[in-house]
Amino acid sequence: MSADGYRVRGRDGEWEIAVGLEVHAQVISEAKLFSSAPTAFGAEPNTQVSLVDAAMPGMLPVINRHCVTQAVRTGLALEAEINLTSVFDRKNYFYPDLPPGYQISQYSRPIVGEGRVVLDLEDGSQRTIGITRLHLEMDAGKSIHDRRADATCVDLNRAGVALMEIVSEPDIRSPEEAGIYLRKLRSILRYIGTCDGNMEQGSLRADVNVSVRRPGDELGTRCEVKNLNSVRFVMRAIEVEAERQVAVREDGGEIELETRLFDAERGETRSMRSKEEAHDYRYFPDPDLLPLTLDPAWVEAERARLPELPDARKARFMADYGLSAYDAGVLVAEREIAEYFEAVTAGRDGKQAANWVTGTLFGALNRAGIGIEQSPVSAAALGALIDRVADGTVSNRAAKDVFEAMVSTGKDADAIIEEQALRQVSDEGAIEALVNQVIADNPDKVADFRGGKTKLMGWFVGQVMKASGGKANPKAVNQALRAKLDG
Amino acid sequence: MSIDKDTVVRIARLSRIAMEDDALEPMAEELNGILAWVEQLSEVDTEGVEPMTGAIAATLPQRDDDAEAGTATDDLLANAPEADDGFFVVPKVVE
Amino acid sequence: MSDLTALTIADARAGLAAREFSARELTDAHIAAVECARDLNAFVAETFDAARAAADDADARLAAGEGRLLEGIPLAVKDLFCTRGVRSQACSNILDGFAPPYESTVTANLWAVGALMLGKTNMDEFAMGSANVTSADGPVINPWRRRGEDKPLVPGGSSGGSAAAVAAGLCLGATGTDTGGSIRQPGAFCGIVGMKPTYGRCSRWGMIAFASSLDQAGPLTRTVEDAALMLQAMAGHDSKDSTSIDRPVPDYAASLTGDVRDLTIGVPAEYRMEGMPAEIEALWAEGVRWFRDAGATVVDISLPLTKYALPTYYIVAPAEASSNLARYDGVRYGLRVEGNDPTEMYARTRAAGFGREVRRRILIGTYVLSAGYYDAYYLKAQKVRTLIARDFESAFETVDAVLTPTAPFAAFAIGEKMDDPIAMYLNDVFTVPASLAGLPAISVPAGLTGDGLPLGLHLIARPFDEPTLFRAAGLLESAAGFSHRPDQSGAGRAV
Ligand SMILES: [Mg+2]
Ligand SMILES: [Zn+2]
Q: Does residue C455 form part of some domain?
């Protein structure tokens, strides 16, 4: 089934879903958005907090230029319009891990406007998801509720870290599409180095807006499911929230605009209404900050500096290396993989290289549970191995063994080929001797062959290969056998 | 526009300021007095006027992305009403 | 040795440089004065030991011929400035016991040129007030009295403690902050000079915020020259404040040439307020004469939106304050009143920690920003503010400075005007427009009321044109020849 055709089957008929995502992506930067405290993950509590982050009296925000650049780069990568003037607003609410009592965010005038992300669906088709906006804002600290039975503990290390909130249009039509969108977005962010995309560490969090409707109807009222920290949870939350809404609607109920929480264990969403009740954020422009203005020439320079993005790279891989859309898609999903592949394939056959990377290498990495950055076989080493296959030094089959040895020993292909005497025998004299021996030992089979059982050629090749200890070059064996048997 | 008791309750809650019941009515009156007085701004024609966003015309200065060590945790917590093992401590948040 | 507490900063610098007296002697004389005048309640913290130590350091530097701009000059600091290790509470219970681990940029700038701190001065809580009666540390008493009366008068506010201390000779100068008139109005009420520089001229870093788009630090001194000297040290670009402006600080004292013949002074018709005492009208007219006599051109101008400035201010300032004061929640510093959950703890803490006027302004500010009211109040006010700034812009096409009274009345008795917030707000009617437009302005003591209380005249100049402002203020000062000093036991006395 194509993702486009996703339907929730209700008691009396089918429902479509419409989903929009709000993704909070932590900006890669050394220092926080409005202070100079460091951003590194996992430090001891309250050790990466400036006076500004703690909202000490009289402290003032000063924006981090690099975070602005990161937001603009992201906007450009999302093919979005960059707003040359944007404004920082205060979003006022009280929470123990929000020291100033307001979040500095962007409300009516964000730094990035409308853009788009193109999804490659499983059936090979594409869908474009609209980006509504991207804005910069500061993260809050962390409230720890399970450390003490009687109290909540507050760690402000995260407070003030720069986030990009990336809001999509409600263009997503299935949980699968939501997953593909999130992975694609993550891929783009990682390509340009603006977010590490680490969902376990909270560098990427998603809120999903879900609504259901009868096919052809207007969009229904949406509910927001907040703070989902894995692709799996995003997909599952959409599924169960859509089912909940369908059940409510089919029972004659109305969907209320509200914020809900996903309970992964129970597989349901729960209303947060009690907390929402008095929310009135009283946004207004932060008087401690002036409007942010960007130089259009600078924006263009940033555009020119962007690396090749996944879509463009995929197209190039297909055109230049003759790869299938599927293989190219797999190879460009991560910038590191694409770069590894390009290093492997440089001066070599693209399809061969793709097979080695997506097949043999990925298999090894998966077994070891590591990423390409930790690959025990460098791109250069893999390239050298492929060269030994191409020049006939090793057979394709033997090369797999060489690769496994490279993984386990870290040695290069040539050393392993020498050590294990895997060098392929291509010497005509040596092969001819083996061929003669096999023919001499099997006169009945030779007679059968010459009598028309040409399928026996495979058997002869096998015998010669066996006699060579697997080291004979199969092509040369074939040639020699043909010359002797046909002749 | 005028403020009634319920409105005072609502904005006091938004402001996180506890108010005794008998203080609500007098506060509503005081606030209404002030609001009635500021109401005269409606006489000013502001059609097409941009709101002031800063008292001075300037562009937002930007800082380099240089991280400095955070404030020493002891200094950070020195003024805290309650701290525990490097954390600020607040009454239990009821989710 | 003459009375060291009667010196101006300029005189004290000369005396110190000539070794006529030591910084230690100067400091001790002021410490003694502070101790004698505790009934004024001008100081909320005394830092005498540190002051004496700093004076000794200053003497060493002076002896080595290395005296800096304000070497050995004893000053007082409004409690709104964060001072390292010294209470910095904005005279609010909510900051009970708060002693910051940092020093505000403005005070650090003063200490960097050799000035020293005698202590922290009283103020209206979070600078919200015009009479210094909202302070959690109690009211400040103006060293002046009405002739023949003993009733204690307000010093004006919110920098009331600073103004009273300077007027009473407890320090040679003091820092103040001005959001809608909080330096200039108490300056006028106490018969001293109060100067608010252009928004962005002094860093706001480390200054406890009231209304961010309006707050500016400035000096309170006994002469215009002293104000120029103090501002020289206080002003400057600070990369820690995004609204601080990066331009050089001119030599302000050098601008005091006494020559105003090239200046055009504007007199705005709209500042002629109904019910304003005739003696203030008269003093204003006299100010016009002084400029004319000195060869300046004086022209009538119109600032049509003047009457809307005060209501605009009373939307913008509380709105910003309601947000700026959200950080006082009992979590990281200051007062906490326990509760069963954070929300209850916050509400109890803030109810107990904020005084009545602060609570009222937070509520008003919250209301004007809340859903459904933002456009009608806050947005409308910020648009009117744009128009008010434009009024000044067009006036400054023809004039170099605007002359007005500083306040529509002189100091009043503690207890007066306390019931009606709007009557109290009228204190700032002449000072607020310049605040909204971010313009530099100064109050110069220029005369006495019939019953012997000081009155100020007020000048407003173009953005960053402090040199012209000081020059014009210098003319007013010399023409007025105001040499009255307060006498705590009776009417102003001439010295
Ligand atoms: Mg959101
Ligand atoms: Zn957000």
A: no
Angle at A355 between CA A349 and CA A361, to 5 degrees: 120
Among C481, C417, C409, smallest CA distance to C451 is for C409
Amino acid at A374: Q
Q: Looking at the 3D structure of chain C, how many domains does it have?
A: 1
**What are the CA-CA distances from residue C153 to residues C37, C144, C298, C446 (Å)?**
15, 7, 35, 19
Amino acid at C426: L
- ipTM score above 0.90: yes
DSSP state of A54: T
- CATH number, domain of C220, equals 3.90.1300.10
Mean pLDDT of A23-40: 97
Neighbours of A408 (CB within 10 A): 11
Residue range of the domain that includes C108:
2-259+476-491
Å between A39 CA and nearest CA of chain B: 8
Q: Which of A394, A419, A444 is the last residue of a domain?
A: A419
In sequence order, what are the beta bridge partners of A104? Answer: A90
Tell me, yes or no, if C359 comes closer than 8 A to chain B by beta carbon: yes
> Which phi and psi (to 5°) does residue A102 adopt?
-155, 150
Is-contact B44 C387, C-beta < 8 A?
Answer: yes
Backbone φ and ψ of A206, nearest 5°: -125, 140
**Looking at residues A2-31, what average pLDDT do you find?**
90
Indicate whether A262 and A386 sit together in one domain: no
Question: What range does the domain containing A337 cover?
Answer: 308-419
Q: How far apart are CA C35 and CA C242, in angstroms?
A: 40
Within-domain flag for C440 = no
Using the beta-carbon criterion (under 8 Å), do B61 and C239 form an inter-chain contact? Answer: yes
As for how many domains chain A has, the answer is: 3
| A144 in the same domain as A277 | yes
Q: Which of C82, C326, C346 sits opposite A58 (nearest CB)?
A: C82
Which candidate, A321, A294, A75, places its Cα nearest to that of A189?
A75
Q: Which two tokens stand for residue A18?
A: 């419409």
- Do A131 and A115 touch, CB atoms closer than 8 A? yes
What is the enclosing helix (H) or strand (E) of A205?
strand A204-213
C78 given a catalytic annotation: yes
Alpha-carbon Rg for chain C in angstroms: 21
For residue A3, pLDDT beyond 80? no
Of all ligands present, the nearest one to the C-alpha of A164 is 2
Same domain for A124 and A241, yes or no, is yes
Find the CB nearest C100 among A57, A102, A282.
Answer: A57
Predicted TM-score (pTM) of the model is: 0.92
The predicted-structure confidence for C407-464, as pLDDT tens digits, reads as follows 999 999 998 877 777 888 888 999 999 999 999 999 999 999 999 999 999 999 999 9
Q: Which chain A residues are within 8 Å of C342, Cβ to Cβ?
A: 94-96, 152
